[in-house]
Amino acid sequence: MLKDFLSINDIKRDEMVDLFRLTDKLKKYPNSDVLKNKMFCLYFEKPSTRTRISFEVGIKELGGEVVFLDKITSQLSRGEPLEDTIRTVERYAHVIVARVFSHKDLELMAKLSKMNVINALSDLEHPCQALADIYTIREKFKTLKDIKIAFVGDGTDNVLHSLLLASTKLGIHMNIACPKGFEPEKSILERARTQAKISGSKISITHEPEHAVKDVHVVYTDVFVSMGQEKDSKKRLKKFLPKYRVTQELLEKAGSALFMHCLPAHRGQEVDDKVIDDIRSIVFDQAENRLHTQKALIIKLLGLEQMYNIKLSLQD
Ligand code: CP
Ligand code: NVA
Fold first, then answer.
1. Are residues 135 and 80 in the same domain?
2. What percentage of the chain exceeds 70 in pLDDT?
3. CB 37 within 8 A of CB 62
C-alpha cells in the first residue's frame, strides 16, 4: 500500500480483498499490542461520532496511543497556517487521521509530512466508510460477485464517491438515482467508468429512484445536506424532496434488498423511520465494521501485518 489513504484510488483491488481477509481475523482476535509506541493524531474540523470513536477504540485495542486535535481549540483558530500545524504534529505523531472541509488540505498534509495520512472524510471522499460498507455487503451476501447497489439521493456525495470507486474496482454494479445537476463529480465518474471496463461493473445514472432500485441487493442513501453545505440547505432540500426519500414503498419496489446508510441519518428527510428501523436495515452493522476495517487499514498502511500474525500466533 501507499504511505497515505486519502482516496479509494490509493488501494488496489487485490489489496482491498486482502484487507477484508485481515478484517475477518481482527473481528475474531481484536486485541494486540502491534501498535505499541505508535502515536496517532486525530484531527477533526467537523463533528463525528462513529469515525472518531471507531478510530480511537481500534487504535487502543491494538496498543497504540491517540491524541485529539480540533480547529477550534488549537492555534489554527487564531490563524496559524495548516502547514505549520502539520510540521509540528509530525514531530509528535506517526499517523494523522484527518476530517477536513477541503480534500486539498489532505493532499497538502500528505505532501508536507512523513506521517501516514488517513482521510476520515473530506468534501470529496469518505474512503474509510466505503471499506466498511463493502465489507458489510460481503459479510451479508457471502460474496461480492454480481452484487447490485442502488444509491438514491445526492450524486455529489462524498460517501457515494468512495462507494462508487470501491464498487467498480470489485465488479459490483451501481445504479445511481439523483436529481439533474447532482451527478457524481466528473473525475470520480471517469475513474469509475475506466475501472468498470476492467472489472465488469455496470454503472447507471437515472433521475428516477424507482428505476434505480429494481432488482438490486442494497438500497443506499446519505443525507441531502452534507457538513459544510448548510447554507444551501433550502435549495438542496427542494431538489431532493420528496422524490429521493427512501420510503417503505420504494424499498418494496427493490424486492428483498437490504437498506444501508453511513449515518448520521436525518430521519424523515432522506429516509423514513420505518425503513431505517426495519429488519432489512443494516446501518449499525456498517457502523460496527468501521472499527474492524479501519484496524486492518492501519495495520496494512504501517506494514505491520506480519507482526500482527506473529503476535497472534504467540498468543494462542
Ligand atoms: N459515518 C460517519 O462517518 O459518521 P460520523 O460522522 O459520526 O463519524
Ligand atoms: N455526506 C455526509 C457524510 C457524513 C458521515 C457529510 O459529509 O456530512
1. no
2. 100
3. no
